Amino acid sequence: MAPRKLAAGNWKMNGTLAALDQLDGMAAAAEDASCDVLICPPALLIHPMIARVGAGDLLIGGQDCHAAAQGAHTGDIAAAQLRDAGATHVILGHSERRADHGETDALVRAKAQAAHQAGLVAVICLGETEAQRDAGATLDVIATQLAGSVPDGATAANTVIAYEPVWAIGTGRTPTTDQIAEVHALLRDRLTARLEDGADVALLYGGSVKPTNAAEIFAIAHVNGALVGGASLKAADFVPIITALDAA
Ligand SMILES: O=C(CO)COP(=O)(O)O
Question: 6-247 maps to which CATH number?
Answer without folding.
Answer: 3.20.20.70
